[in-house]
Amino acid sequence: MGARRFSLKAFKTFNYWLKSYNAKSSPSFYALAFTTIFFLICAADLFSNSSSNSAYLASYDKVGEFGIPQTEKSTESEIPLLSLQENEEESDGENHDPLIPPENLSRDERIAWFRRQLPELEILQTSSLSQQFHSRVLNFLNQGCSVLFHIIWMSPAKSFGKREFLTMDTLFKAHPQGCLLIISRSMDSRRGYRILKPLLDRGIKVFAVTPDVPFLVKDTPLEAWLEGMNSGTKDPGHIPLSQNLSNMIRLAMLYKYGGVYMDTDLIILKDFTELRNAVGAQSIDSVTRKWTRLNNAIMLYDINHPILLDFIREFATSFDGNRWGYNGPYLVSRVIEKFGSTPGYNLTIMPPRAFYPVDWHRIGRLYKKPQNESESTWVESKLNELNEGETYAVHLWNKITREMVIEEGSVMARLIAEHCVVCDDIRKG
Asked: Which of 64, 95, 162, 278 pairs as cysteine with 426 (C-beta 3.0–4.6 A)?
């Protein structure tokens, strides 16, 4: 134990020396520093085989189709989880959401309310843990990813249930070498770790990380938007701010890291590797066959793709917290309508069958078991259509289906059985 303390103290001292000198320091300083630390480590190793974490040198090279940021390989075989495990346990009584304003407030009253709430809005602030966000993300990506996925979870970890777990479960069935980042303060905790453990125990690459929102918006038009929010001078609107923060964070994450953003109410059926710079149409005109509405529940983009900057500008300049979907799916629709044909953008608009093969008002039928031969035939036909056709994922419209029981023999029950890894029983939610 004494040797470990000695070695750790040596590293902390060495790190302090390095931070105290800039790149113009003399070579003799570095020679002396490295000689000293080498001696200290050797002395410590006489008593212990423990080692300190290696330093990580990050680069921002574009690698693969999604331009995933890479770092130099760490000597550690596993991603450190110490900061995650040291977080305090979530309170069992945590139900209060400081991002939902009281009803029937005027604009001025809502701004005044929001200004009073600002000290509670940790998601908008930088903390000691969030300051590690970028380095933790790059460290995680050292493992190598066939595809990088992101999801965002703004609610307490205790509300991340089996239906949400299903999205991850089916994702890794289709992408066993994929990586999943969960951008979430609440999931970056002991409780979150326990939720993810069935996947982690199988060697699956999933990681919950507390976001640094100021870092994510830095050097983008969103920086001014965040300053307005943090100053308490901008109207957050009556729609829960968490919803619009999710809309904003997904754009910033894709812009800075690239990859695939997805909501947590999906079943993933096929490998996304061949898709690039794509978004899905939710509906199309029955006559012209042109899309009428896009949806931002799944988006795939290269790092720094210019359409993402167009999305970000639109969010920052036209934000309206009083109109549902205005800063989300409607934003994506109006921006692509305006800029989508720009030369060099090379965007792909996927047809509804790719991600939204069943509309929200018909989704309930997928949860029902067949009652007769005709319904059994329909179930087999629908399964064949989804599994063998051009459907990559099924959006489940969780607000409608969350409380629905997944009946034995239904399309949903069959899809889950065919496309799961952990295969936990989620039929009753």
From this structure: 162
